[in-house]
Amino acid sequence: MDDIVDLRNKQIAYEDIIERLDENIASRIYWLVSIITALGGFLFGYDTGVIGSALIYIGPYFHLTSFEVAVLTSFTSVFAGIGALVAGPFIDRFGRKSLLIIDGIFYALFAVLSGLAISSIDLIIWRSLVGFAIGADTAVATGYISEFAPKRHRGKLASLQQLMIVVGMMTSFWVGYYLSMALPQTTNWRWMFGLGAIPAVILVALRFYLPESPRWLLIQGREEDAKKALAKLGVHVSEHIIPPKRELGFKEALSKQYIRRILLVVGLWLVFQQVTGINIILYYGPYIWKYLGFTGPRAILSTVIPYSIGFIATLFQIYLVDRWGRRTLGTIGFTGLLVSLVIMTVGAHYFALNDISIAVPLIFSAMVLFQVLFALGVGGVGWVLQGETMPTEFRGRGGGILAAIDWFANFAIIYIFPIWLSAYGMFSFWVLEDVLALAAVIYVLLLVPETKGLSVDQMPQLFSRPLREIRKRQ
Asked: Which UniProt keywords are given for this protein, alphabetically ordered (predicted)?
């Protein structure tokens, strides 16, 4: 039963409405809206995972060089970053819901065209535009969830984005594994790409039923629409709502110290989230196993198993994020990545010595541990922070900038990897990853604050403190 707010005065302040929204229970409608929103994460995950399976067959089909492999995989991330930046102003100007629908339509179209590509250039173009749609979705999804989620449950609801990313990746790997055995090598990759349009169409249909963000509607002065959206979320208001402050201009926002600190602290998390190598394993996992001597289906299966185990860890992350907090999970997660990457480095050393009997178990164990610790304390927490820290009046553009930082960092690492692998081998690359993971652990300990239990409207106050003081809020 909806919580009905009894408002006896003729008018009520925006802050009082938001407080009631923050203190509401996470009823069925909150979970339903969050799941529909997070379905974009499924597309994100499917697209991220499917390239790893398809790459085994695309390379020989189009006779790709290592440079062309790097372009094909990394340009998706470049355009995702561009999509996030372009989406930001659109989100603040036209609303969260409209962008959530439009990016789903774009994804469905470009997924089909990717499957119909007739040349490597053709494929790069369509895959890049798929990335544009995904990037736009990441700019808005967790921010939209954070704007209506009760503060005690915001972490778990926003973490559904990461859960859907994991489910999408698992689905893409299993689809890739099945199609690699069921269809000829010349056509199986086309179906891997094209089938992504099916969940995209379902997503678009469901998102038409989402309410617009009440916070955004009130900032836009659309009081009656805001009351309807609030009613869907169990907060019924009949009185006049005193309007809040309007949205921030771009220059005005960047002149505020707390916004610059959010960009620094959360932006660094998203950079480390990428450069420690998660998408090397996801994009190039089957490619790495093929490099180690495994055949196509076996190479895909060797990537599926670790990620399926990581799925369980994601469920624990959703359970723990509002109990243990973001900072604690981040410390555990990045420390675990460091340990797994050291094991990976040792495995690469034995591979360089042609001692496959030791190298393969070490690398496989490292991949499993990496997936588990990334899912538990890094990936989902990063997207929670991206969605909850920016002020409502700048959340679209701020969230777009943060999402773009994530995607451009992703581009850098996945572009470098195949070229580095061809030139220097695997061992030296994992040594670099060890150093980056150590830097990530130090960063979390020194800079990351705890945001658990705070309203999104309290984030400016938290990040207004000096950097050396921010982390002390426990």
From this structure: Membrane, Sugar transport, Transmembrane, Transmembrane helix, Transport
pLDDT tens figures, 9-55: 467 777 788 888 888 887 889 999 999 999 999 999 998 778 878 88
Torsions phi, psi for 241 (to 5 deg): -100, 125
Number of domain units in the chain: 1
Note whether residue 205 is domain-resident: yes
User: Hey, how many other C-beta atoms are within 10 angstroms of the C-beta on 38?
Assistant: 27
pLDDT value of position 298:
66
Which domain does 384 fall in, by range?
A: 12-470
Q: How far apart are CA 323 and CA 328, in angstroms?
A: 10
Q: What is the DSSP string of 312-365?
A: HHHHHHHHHTTTT-HHHHHHHHHHHHHHHHHHHHHHHHHHHTT-HHHHHHHHHH
pTM listed for this prediction: 0.87
Distances (CA, A) of 269 to 5, 161, 416, 450: 38, 17, 20, 13
Q: What is the pLDDT of residue 426?
A: 81
Domain CATH code at residue 333: 1.20.1250.20
Inter-residue contact 133 to 110 (CB < 8 Å):
yes
Amino acid identity for residue 335 in this structure: T
A 10 A CB-CB count for 431 gives 15
> Rounded to whole angstroms, how far apart are CA atoms 145 and 35?
10
386 closest CA partner among 158, 160, 215, 216: 158
Calpha distance 325→59 (Å, rounded)? 43
What does residue 387 show for φ and ψ, rounded to 5 degrees? Answer: -85, -30
Residue 286 pLDDT class (50, 70, 90 cuts): low
> How many C-beta neighbours within 10 Å does residue 292 have?
18
Q: Considering the domain boundaries, does residue 166 fall inside one?
A: yes
146 within domain boundaries = yes
155-184 per-residue burial string, b: 16 or more CB within 10 A, e: under 16? bbbbbbbbbbbbbbbbbbbbbbbbbbeeee
User: Can you tell me the distance from the alpha carbon of 367 to that of 381, in angstroms, rounded to the nearest whole number?
Assistant: 20
What's residue 292's pLDDT? 66
- pLDDT by residue (tens digit) across 331-374? 999 999 999 999 999 998 888 788 888 888 898 889 889 989 99
pLDDT in tens, 402-416: 999 999 998 898 888
113-149: b or e for each residue (b if 16 or more CB lie within 10 Å)? bbbebeebeebbbbbbbbbbbbbbbbbbbbbbbbbbb
